[in-house]
Write a structure and sequence with these properties.
This is 2OG-Fe(II) oxygenase. The chain has three helices and 14 strands. With about 210 residues, the protein is α+β, with helices and mostly antiparallel strands. The protein has one domain: Alpha-ketoglutarate-dependent dioxygenase AlkB-like (Jelly Rolls). The protein binds 2-oxoglutaric acid and fe (ii) ion (FE2).
Length: about 210
């Protein structure tokens, strides 16, 4: 005889071994007009390609970047001090949209531009000291589709996500403690990709006394 369910629901696991996945992927979050507005705006961003020192040798990073943020939200990223520049119009609109729709509070956005599939980002976590505890990081992609990897620091479990233009990936706190991510080279990609990561920093972290 079939046993009563009593409203407990199905016993099959609902997927994965995570209680709640540490990230949420929302495909097509931005419509084509919103994507276009940001892409046009980005042509005027003062992107730079800072030099980093690896094993005593200095190299330019394999992408270009800029940091827009509120006053008092300077950032030390990959060991480089980056000063906050004022928010451009559409980057600011996107920040407010994320706040309204996901209660995702941010006070800065790091914009990375990958000119083509030769440009990349190595394995890392966004776990700088100035990131506000309990804050989520929202990543929005525009332009070329690229594969994005997420890897667990202990188990080495690896997940691949294809990020297409307009997609939103929310990396939930405390994902950065246990997982790393990377954007590998893809030599078949010839078009540029732009990525915005909205972050919440502790205000005044780098201000003296
Ligand atoms: O370009 C991406 O999708 C990732 C960017 C990233 O991981 C970062 O800016 O820390
Ligand atoms: Fe990152």
């Amino acid at each position: 005889m079939k046993q009563a369910d009593l409203g407990f629901g199905q016993e099959e696991p609902t997927g994965g071994n995570q209680l709640s996945p540490p990230w949420t992927l929302i495909k097509g979050y931005l419509n084509p007009a919103q994507q276009q507005a940001l892409l046009i705006e980005s042509a005027d961003y003062p992107l730079t390609r800072p030099e980093v020192t690896v094993f005593g040798k200095s190299h330019p990073i394999p992408r270009s970047q800029v940091w827009f943020a509120d006053k008092g939200c300077d950032y030390v990223y990959s060991g480089l001090f980056i000063e906050a520049l004022p928010w451009p119009r559409y980057a600011q609109k996107l920040r407010i949209k994320l706040e309204r729709e996901f209660s995702l509070l941010s006070n800065g956005v790091l914009v990375n531009r990958y000119a083509n599939g030769q440009e990349s980002m190595g394995w890392h976590s966004d776990n700088e000291k100035e990131i506000e505890p309990n804050s989520d990081i929202a990543s929005v992609t525009l332009g070329a589709s690229r594969e994005f990897f997420i890897r667990h620091k202990q188990t080495k479990q690896k997940v691949s996500l294809m990020l297409d233009s307009g997609d939103l990936l929310i990396m939930h706190w405390p994902m950065q403690q246990d997982w790393e991510h990377s954007l590998p080279k893809r030599l078949t990609v010839s078009q540029p990709r732009l990525n915005y990561t909205f972050r919440r920093l502790i205000v005044g972290f780098h201000q003296a006394g």
